[in-house]
Amino acid sequence: MPELPEVEVIRAGLAPVVSGRTLTRVRVLHPRPVRYHPAGPQGFAAELAGRTLTEPRRRGKYLWIPFEDGDALLVHLGMSGQFRVDMPDAPLRPNTRVLFDFDDDSRQLRFIDQRMFGGMQLSAGGAELPPQISHIALDPFAPDFDPETVARRLRAKRSTIKRSLLDQTLVSGIGNIYADETLWRCRLHYEQRNASLSQRRAVEVLSTAREVMTASLAQGGTSFDALYVDVDGAAGYFSRNLAVYGRQDQPCDRCGTPIVREPFMNRSSYRCPGCQHRPRRSLVAQ
DNA sequence: TCGTAGACCCGCTGCA
DNA sequence: GATGGGCGGGTCTACG
Predict the structure, then answer these.
(1) Which residue ranges form the domains of chain A, and what is each CATH number?
(2) CB A274: neighbour CB atoms within 10 A?
């Protein structure tokens, strides 16, 4: 569920909470979130204890907390993962999966995940960039992100635009919400062939994705429900600014045509039929 | 015809 | 009862 802006909000919220603190105890309440850790839940807990954390980092939707020793705790929030900061004696919220206690014995970090598509693992030598996510492309917020290069790669793919925007090995951080919002702003149908886009148009799409996510970040991200909140439990407000996502049957802000929801890749795509026309057959087939 | 790379789709899991 | 923001891996497909 969290896409780049939501993960960035969480990263920024974690920074003052974890930076410079030393873990004294880690408790894994459900094994699934640490399923990628080879040593299992007990090994995970034992290997983290005693480590000192530094400022959290992010690439796309992945988050990692480097340790002073050069390793890192790599985290993906999946569909429903969240970090919360609570006093150690506060009652556990439903679906709390992992507890992190620190040496100063004050606030406790808690990982909560309803559906448990997310997970975390110790990444050896992963402080700079965990090798587990070396295949994840730069996101549009990365200083080295080059829209021209990514646009060329995008146009070379024998695929369609929304699939490619969701392809985390091409450009990371974009999920279903921001893909739909980007395509609405660009007046593009999700089945538009990449090869049909000019270089300039492809760069425009990538720049627009960055703009949408920047605007969302300024609002604290997109929250539809309690599944996405920051480390203090606060919701983001960008859902008020969404043009198409989740707005089935409501009028398009641009032309008034009712927004439609259509099945796409086992989920949904929202678009305005008035200003995002289905590409002509010659552009769909190849 | 075969091997490889890229594209695509299923399944995971759980509750509001 | 339907729907949901995610990803990895198995399978399919296209191309050289």
Answers:
(1) 4-133 (3.20.190.10), 147-284 (1.10.8.50)
(2) 16
